[in-house]
Amino acid sequence: MIRTLMGGLKAGVKEPLLASKRRQRQLVRPSFIDYAVTWLCNARCVMCDTWKLCQEDPKAGKDEMTPAELDGILTRDAEFLSEIRKIGLTGGEPFLREDLVDLVEVLVRHFPKARISLVCNGLLHKRIVKKLPDLRRVCPDLVFSVSLDGMEGVHDKVRGIPGAFDKALGTIKAALEAGFTVTSGMTISELNYDQIKPVSEMLSSLGVDFSCNLMEAGVNFNTGGQAPPLPPEQARVVARDLEQFGHHYYMDHVREQLGGAKRTLPCFSGFTSYFLQPYGDVAICNIIGNSLGNLREQSFRTLADSESAWQAREKLANCTCWSQCEVKNSASVCPSHVLRWLLKSPNKGRIVKHYAGKAGILPQ
């Protein structure tokens, strides 16, 4: 409990300092890295076109950073990356990389105190089950996340793969049996807007933490422009079903935004967090894909302190997206926003109990 309180106090003290440094163009060491280890994907999701990259790009899957390259880059940039405390591994589908365990081992060696999470679609069930013991060996505290976008046929339709639900659910259960902390996320669309309640209840019965987000457009999804909004009637259904998650910072704000509320959380993407792409390119976030440069050619600090990086940060001053990865990172260094949400919420008791449980202070 003391560690949690001290962490919140430390972040609260640093928050105005971070804002001041960003205004004055003074670089800080990042705290968070999201790393897409491959663009290859074996799903055909309606909300994401990343899988098309392997058809459009002849080098897809052939020129990704190897574990040895990553090791060399992290050794070179150790000083600048010395304050990393969370790493999110994503794709594409990470388990399409045969050397995924080796990549995780490199990250654990360089960042032994960082919280590492991995998001997959669960389709490669047999391969994943075989790799779980090795992943458990190199990173016992890995947070294992499997996407689930609806019950049975609905999930299959969203993912564009027959039998996807059974494989994803089987992967969730296998990861639980292997001893991992398991979470699951849903991307809400017109196909599954009514699936929040049944999916969340099923996952809760398994002891799996659930979250959901609206469709997004950006580099991590190989899409441009704006993601299509839900029709009004569907948006009302989603907002109603999200009322049960008033204790959940991210989803409670999704509900508010469906009702017309605007984002008020400052964005620290590209300042305290970055998005690393498979071939070594560094981007501000997983939505804005303009590369700041490549780590194979320049150091992380050089790319982060470039003129293009500072210009990109200025463009984020009025960011309105609610991308889950980016929001969580910004909220972690902006506790005043979380505190204001807590104080105005009628669910204060549930909120405190929920997050105290996640921190291990109280039983969940």
Automatic annotation (TrEMBL):
Coiled-coil positions: none
Cofactors: [4Fe-4S] cluster
Matches recorded under Gene3D superfamilies: Aldolase class I
An annotated Gene Ontology molecular function: metal ion binding
Keyword set includes S-adenosyl-L-methionine: yes
One Pfam family recorded for the sequence: Radical_SAM
InterPro entries, sorted: 4Fe4S-binding_SPASM_dom (IPR023885), Aldolase_TIM (IPR013785), Radical_SAM_PqqE_MftC-like (IPR050377), rSAM (IPR007197), rSAM_sf (IPR058240)
Taxonomic classification: Bacteria, Pseudomonadati, Thermodesulfobacteriota, Desulfarculia, Desulfarculales
Full protein name: Radical SAM core domain-containing protein
Domain Radical SAM core: 25-261
SUPFAM superfamilies: Radical SAM enzymes
Taxonomic source organism: Dethiosulfatarculus sandiegensis
Record key words, sorted: Iron, Iron-sulfur, Metal-binding, S-adenosyl-L-methionine
Keyword set includes Iron-sulfur: yes
